[in-house]
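pasting for ref. prot 1 ->
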Amino acid sequence: MLVVRPIQAADLDDLFTMAESAGKGLTTLPADRVLLQRKIDWAAESFGQRCEPEAGLYLFVLEDTETGKTVGISGIEARVGLDEVFYNYRLSLTVNASRELGVHVRTPTLHLSSDMTDTTEICSLLLADEYKGGGNGLLLSRCRFMFLDDFREHFSEKVFAEMRGVSDQHGRNPLWDALGSKFFEMEFAEADRLSGLGNKSFIAELMPHYPIYLSLLPDSAREVISKVHDNTLPALKMLQAEGFNFNGLVDIFDGGPVVEAFVHTIRTVRESLNRHVMIVNKPVDMEAPPEQRVMISNRSFGDFRVTTIPMSCVGSDTVNIPREVADALLLESGDSVRIAPLKEGELSPIHTPTRGTPSHGKTRG
């Protein structure tokens, strides 16, 4: 069984192995044991409510309960830009015109922006290669929206994601080569690593604050602005299916797009339902393809758990699950759970749905 749960100290080795396999460009999850340990500790403080809500980092891992191995990770940062300025470039147009000369020129430009300050970021999505497919990536990504919905008071109404930009097999990025390297005098990988470590003050000190005219950049640099890395395309499509859209901002290093949505418009949030658990002793057929499965969350803050079950387990008021699933989710009969379709589409087998109050999830543990 694959179960999503909060990250733990024992996940470090598996997490480091996944980060190494991801290659360069995944800023929020670099292959650095010290930084990863720091993030694990930060997440423990957040789930334990030992830090201010706006300073929280919530990291969820996907565990294969049969092997005990951690095979994926995803995260939510409650608010960005509160300690240090959070920068992006905003794509815009600079218009110059002369009626006398009959000239009207529109020039695409990049403006340094901190518009996402105090906004919730979803981040750090990574799944081990051998577990890709079968809806596992959907579960790992979309479980975050169930958490956001149940505990909205900890997050902003708007949520965004910075998507990984284009780079080659050596980690080189055309936009960085044409722009960033001229001001930072360092390789893209090093600047990206420093940003991931949290050393972002150098951005403000060295990055130009005046508009960057794209017409002055080579074609190779212009072509990658707002484009994603091939490995990131599935994650982008998942977010687009949830209602996320490009907001005109791009990463200042690699030009990857920023996509955003309001929590109440996210598909998983809109289509989720509340039910009560009924633990059954008779055999339950737990096999079903991804399009016939639903995510089920225990609605706990500190002990958040999510897995998938067949739609056939869901009734108009209850969810019927075997004891082993209940134990994996830390549930007992009568507990409230949240369910949502794993893939796009309505929960068609379910009748007379009852939508729960979004922010009234249980805080256990």
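and prot 2 ->
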Amino acid sequence: MIQKVWFTFIWSTIKCGLFFYSKKITILGKENIPKKGAVLFAVNHPNGLLDPLYVTTTNKRQNHFLVRAASFKHPFIKKILVSLYLMPIYRIRDGVQQLSNNQEIFEKCHAILKKKETLMIFPEGSHNKKRTVRSLSKGFVRIVFGALEKYEDLEVTVIPVGITYQHTSHYPAKVTVNYGKPIATRALYESHPLAKSIRILKEEVYEQLKVLSVHISDDQEYERILQQLNKAQIDFTEVNKTNKMIQTNRFPVAKPPKKNYLKPLLYLIKLNSILPYLIWKKISKNIDEVEFIDTFRFSINLFLCILFYGIQALIISRYFGSTLGLFYLAISALIIIIYVKLTPTNAKEHAALV
């Protein structure tokens, strides 16, 4: 009970934070999510730990997450992650001897599905900002079919989920979360030999992900197509429209990027958040993977800005009255909302950030 209250509090805080962080969050296919029963969300993975945050805050199911084991190295961080229903998944790069730990994790996943709760898995196995759906590992299939084998009365619904960003690692974010068609797995598991069932489920999820997110084949044409889309200032979050251009090889004419006349507001936001901004700038120098820039930027600034704005509001209230303190908070929030919601997001924009 305490864990659920804690999770709900963090979930609500993150959902509110994403509102202030994102220019627009488009949710498609939400009607495909079953209100009850065991569900496994199979999600593409372009943008680090921000991907599960967008998925879990755009559906009302109680989600459990499988994330890479490296995130659990620090004991304190591990306790926080476990309290938020995150579980480690081990890969060869974590050490061959660590792979045996996955069996225990799979058992926990089976128990979660037995309780008719939900799992979120990233079957590409790693994050990559490239606009390509990569080959899927069979780990998620092993979990599903393992649960079906263990519990004969269980049905597990697999829902592919495509995430597409206008940019990864840029602020403000603009993203589409696209829930695909449910795949019933019991009949598939019982109708074919195991090897064939595994192949069919992987192919079905893969084919759906190529439609649910922007997909450019990773071949010699990738860079040419991407450049054509960028030059035309395409809104990548219009997934169906963008994929149609890619499939037909027909692109709009090149357009100049829109000017950002709200840039002065960004400097005002930085000045008002000077301590969180300076802390972020120092930490950002040590981020090696571009796919983790958004993750750290959002996480650090969410909690630091809440704390920093709260302290500043208390100081103002102490010396000038509570009305002015509340007015400061309201104006600070309004400035961020105006900048985030109205600033243009061009196809090739390198925005600074708070």
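The mean pLDDT is 91.
The CA atoms of residues 114 and 279 lie 44 Å apart.
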